[in-house]
Structures are given as C-alpha cells and as structure tokens.
Amino acid sequence: MYSWEELEQECQRCRKCGLCHTRNNVVFGVGNRNADVMFIGEGPGEQEDLQGVPFVGAAGKLLDEMMSIIDLDRTNSYIANIVKCRPPQNRDPEEAEQDACIDYLRMQFALVQPKIIVCLGRIAAKRIINPNYKITRDHGNWVIRNGIWMTALYHPSALLRDLSKRPDTFSDLLRIREKMAEVKNFGL
Ligand code: URA
Fold it and tell me: Which atom of ligand 1 is found nearest the CA of 41?
C-alpha cells in the first residue's frame, strides 16, 4: 500500500499511456483525503491540464455550485478523475488509457476510504458502477458495493449545454445529502 506521497509521485511521472506525450500536467486529485464523499470525473480538460487541478474550468465552477447546494466543497470532499492526463481535444478517454490509469484511482479510493462515490457523467459511471450504465436512465439511482454507496450525476459539462437536465440533477443532489446523513447515522 502506497502513502499519498508515493502515489502522487508515481502518478506525476507516469508514462503508462500515450496521453503522457501531450499533457502539460498530471491532474492527480484535490480535496480532503479523509472525505466521506468522493467525486469521480472523466478526465482533465484544457484548464485542468494547464493548472494540474481537477474541475477548475467552466464545468468545475458549476460543480462547485452543485456541491455547495449540499454543503460540500473541496475541504470536505475528494475529487479525482478516471484518467489523470488530458485526452487531446477533450475526446473520451480510450479504454486502454482508462485501463492504464485506473490503478491510481483504486489507490486513491483505498486511501480516502469514502462512504459515498458520486460519478460525474457517463464515462465514470460506466467504469465505476456498471459497463451498461445509461446516464439518462440511471442517474440518481443508488447501488451499494462492499459497503460503499454509489451513484452518478449528469456531468457538469452536460448541464452547461442542456439546462433541461438541471432539475433532475437538483433532486439527485438532495438524495446525496440524504445519503450522507444516513451513512453518518450508521457510523454512530
Ligand atoms: N471534466 C472532468 O471530467 N474532469 C475534470 O477534471 C474537468 C472536466
């Protein structure tokens, strides 16, 4: 088992897939390393690649607003991505790129030990919850695996493009808040 420092160092010098040739920065993760709630996105975009921090562009600003609705922020939750380096032109990360990178996320998950995982968008939901996940059908539904509650929201980029998805996301967020209260009570 790696320490945070070892894991981050190894991730920073990773050359396991082709994305290492075009990246400016590895985008490791941000937030509280003991959080109850872990958000998982798809991969860095342009701003994230330039700054080395997840969700700092337009979608990130919306994510911060979404989190604030349920009293979450970057001090009480942890945010990471399926792939740590930006896919060129923000294309979907390829299966092989996800495979090469997923162990970093597994180790982040093992260190954080969250009670709740919230996947952001289709790519993360398919990879983490179920390969047959359909985000329009399944968003907001909950599954429990090994004692960890998991759900998915529409990706904030999708919510920027399509305002009609926002009311559903608002309800999904409220259910995350309920689940947070529920897992806290079980912990007593
Ligand atoms: N979109 C993602 O999925 N992750 C980021 O870090 C930024 C945008």
Answer: 3
Overall domain count for the chain: 1
Domain holding 73, by residue range, is 4-185
Rounded distance from Cα 54 to ligand 1 centre (Å): 6
CA nearest to 44, candidates 28, 65, 63: 28
Query: What averages of pLDDT result for each successive group of 10 residues across the chain (188 residues)?
Result: 96 98 98 98 98 98 98 98 97 98 98 98 98 98 97 98 98 98 80
Order of strands across the sheet that contains 77-81: 30-31, 77-81, 37-41, 116-120, 148-153, 143-145
59 Cβ closer than 6 Å to some ligand 1 atom: yes
Q: pTM higher than 0.85 for the full model?
A: yes
For ligand 1, whether the C-beta of 93 sits within 6 Å is no
Residue 118 is part of a domain; what is its CATH number? 3.40.470.10
